[in-house]
């Protein structure tokens, strides 16, 4: 997350802490339990030095490896898997791989819905990210449905910052829908639609 302290919403800061601090804590705790059970093991924490490098390719490699280790350690039905899928979605989004980002956000949302519930803040966050990528892919009906699901959660939680962001996303989706209704060709759209 790149923003000044004054421009950072508490929800964004919480998300960063969930991934960077709590994620490391949970992975370390699970690893230590496994090492205790097997009678040996070593921990090499590389997060602090890697944070200074700021290379997206490294982040992708580390997140992918962390996901593999988590699957090996806790299986595929754990909240941490959803968090890592979300991180992988963010990386793909920043690299311009929107379809890959959509798949990662969809996986995070589905797992979070199953494990945390449909009305959990993280589930809503993953749904909103998924909606954004769907809009960029031109899949406006799906984007609108997922953004509406996220908005319902934010409304229930009284999360005003995320309500505003979601309403902005719904406006963006409506703009793309309007472009489609006007019969504009793909090359004239603000977003592109891949062949399906």
Structure description:
The protein is mainly α. Helices cover 74% and strands 0% of the residues. Helix 4 runs antiparallel to helix 5. The C terminus is likely disordered.
User: Measured on Cα atoms, how large is the radius of gyration?
Assistant: 18 Å
Fraction of residues in H or I helices = over 70%
* Span of the ends, CA to CA: 32 Å
What is the overall shape? elongated
Task: Flag low-confidence runs.
Answer: 192-196
Q: Which structural class is indicated by helix and strand composition?
A: mainly alpha
Produce the secondary structure layout:
Blueprint: H1 10-38, H2 47-53, H3 56-74, H4 79-94, H5 98-115, H6 121-136, H7 140-157, H8 160-181
Helix pairs in contact: 1-4, 3-4, 4-5, 5-6, 6-7, 6-8, 7-8
Q: Characteristics of this structure?
A:
elongated, disordered C terminus
Short recap of the structure:
With 196 residues, this protein is mainly α. The chain has helices at residues 10-38, 47-53, 56-74, 79-94, 98-115, 121-136, 140-157, 160-181.
